[in-house]
Amino acid sequence: MNYKESVELLKKYSYQYYVLDEPLVSDFEYDELYHKVKEYEDKNPNKVDLTSPTQRVGDVILDKFSKAKHLSKMWSLEDVFDNSELKEWIKRVKGEYLNFYCEPKFDGASLNLIYENGALKEAITRGDGEIGENVTLNAKTINSIPLEIEYKGLIEIRGEVVISKNDFIKINEERAKNSEALFANPRNSSSGSLRQLDPKVTAKRKLTFYPWGVGKNDLNYFLSSEMMEYIYSLGFRELPKRKVCNIDEIENFYKELIDERENISMMLDGMVIKIDATTTQNSLGFTQKAPKWAVAYKFPAVEKVTKIKDILLQVGRSGVITPVALLEPIEIEGVMVERASLHNFEDIERKDIKINDSVIIIRSGDVIPKVIKPLIHLRENVINIKRPLLCPTCNSKLLDEGTLIKCQNISCSDRAINSIIYFASKKCLNIVGLGKKMVEILYNEKIISDVRDLFNLDRDKLLILDGFKERRVENLINAVENAKNPLCFKFINSFGIEHIGEVASKILCSKFGLNFLNITKDAILNLDGFGEEMALSLLEFNEVNREKIKELIEIIKPIEDKIVIKESVFNSKIVVITGSLTKPRDKIKLILEGFGAKITNSISKKTDFLIYGENAGSKFDKAKNLGIELISEDKFWEMITV
Questions:
Q1: Helix or strand or coil: residue 496?
Q2: Where are the alpha helices (DSSP H) in 447-526?
Q3: Distance between CA atoms of 240 and 224, rounded to whole angstroms?
Q4: 67-249+265-297 is classed in which CATH architecture?
Q5: What is the distance between the alpha carbons of residues 485 and 392, in angstroms, rounded to a whole number?
Q6: What is the mean pLDDT of residues 340-362?
């Protein structure tokens, strides 16, 4: 058997195993053929068939994902939660005499596959529906996504990337062992797995792709059900259940899915209902967010009773302390549940939840269970749950704002990596080349433990790290040096202090400069736009990190920037900037702030001006509908130079 024949046979084995779930050979036989093909390809790299199953796992590790535009918009779905809401929707679309295509709804990560001339050209996450992230290398590692199809036209095939219940549990168990944050639900797990910068990590996660629709295409089907049968015939995995229903059959099929959901390996959170006739779909069209001809009929929440054994405090990457209930294990829809979210300490107090309480837990769809309420009549030997005063990781004093409790120590190991990444980001100190991946390497290799260590990097220690050649090390050290002498507001903003963003940092610097470290609560409250929460957060942060901040001031010598407000039409006005601009957006923001403008990111009735460039999109349309004054970039430059 020659190489080409071996590849075709390997494709057949893969399709039977990963798509049809009906393996033709043993794992040993499959592996034997796989390695035979791989061995040939290693020796003959110029003769490799790019659609060979061996090419699914790439060796390219990305620095970041690039943005990519969908050929046609990816829409969301309107939700209905009971039969009365469903009937209202059917009445609204005048669907009493229509047929509906019904299928299970997996709550995973939506993905858009673009095929051209039969080859997988691009895979794009949903994003905002118009622009997503290019995850093509990762998508190619998913065995249920064909690398080539028989249809040769340009087509977008949309679907859901999902993970099985058992694999979801295994991933979380592994993350718990590595002291990593657990995925809240299979959707987060699927999305996180799909967005790994290293495709080999994605390949290990055992993801599955189920198609549910098409975008741009030249197909000529009058029924969605027939079109999807054709899509399945191209080599995609079929949904476990689907049915064309008249109005009287929808509810029965919905109940069938609820009864059988425990037997389906992937978690379901509802049923998608589409008008089957594509001509009717086209005539109904879309709202701003969703097709008028389809809805998601959500499943009811599942409730169980168990007991809280203890409370675990998790420190998130931003320092937020989250209480998690450790439960007596209980099975919900085939999954053994041992933890449940308590949301925050205000929620615990409001519901009067205590350790050793028997509690009702609820899971709606695929979300990790939440504790709803304690069963007071079963209460005995309970222990009150106290608000923590000190961080469970670093033992530093916590910021307690009632709802939010947060560790503000920039050296806390549970938040240090995130603190360093934010500190080095473009809108803060802008240490070029110091991205998430490099920060993680330097932290894990104990080269740095907090932001101060960035300014004392040991060249010799860096050079012995894997992948750190002379030029890379030189570039990093130069980038750190160039980050010194930042503007005062960038220095303050780089700490990521709760409630103190870029605008608040500018106000602090314009009034106090680097003396922000010593100001009183009254002085903070006298600042325009500062409230009680902002004052307490800043004071708490200064108290916990005072010596570190002083040390950093000595090292990097921030520049005290005084902002002098000039008179202009923008004075005290709310301005939004959108679209592709010829000048850096940060430069335009600084100019506007110099003219007394307040810059925000979202359009509302309070917005005074929208400054726009090319491809302005939805913000432009919304501003126009609200009657907000629209200023092109060219006009803006004319206005400020007059």
A1: coil
A2: 459-463, 470-482, 488-493, 502-512, 521-525
A3: 17
A4: 2-Layer Sandwich (3.30)
A5: 35
A6: 90
Task: Give the phi and the psi of residue 369 in degrees, each rounded to 5.
Answer: -55, 150
Secondary structure element (H or E) that encloses residue 331, with its range: strand 321-332
Out of 176-185, 225-234, 330-339, 358-367, give the one with best mean pLDDT: 225-234
Class of domain 302-378: mainly beta
Provide the CB-side half-sphere exposure for 131 (13 A, CA): 7
From 12, 43, 67, 105, active-site residue: 105
Tokens of 139: 């998508």
Residue that is written with structure tokens 């290019």 in the block? 134
> Is pLDDT at 323 greater than 70 in this prediction?
yes
Question: Is the per-residue pLDDT at 487 higher than 50?
Answer: yes
The answer to whether the predicted template modeling score (pTM) of the entire model surpasses 0.70 is no
Q: How many helices (H) does the chain have, and how many strands (E)? A: 22, 22
123 close to 138: Cβ distance less than 8 angstroms: yes
End-to-end CA distance of the chain: 78
Residue 482 confidence (pLDDT): 92
**CATH no. for 574-641:** 3.40.50.10190
- The answer on pLDDT for 366 being more than 50 is no
> C-alpha angle with apex 429: 427 to 435, nearest 5 degrees?
80
Residue 105 bears catalytic tag: yes
Classify 519 as helix, strand or coil. coil
Q: 488-556 has which CATH code?
A: 1.10.150.20
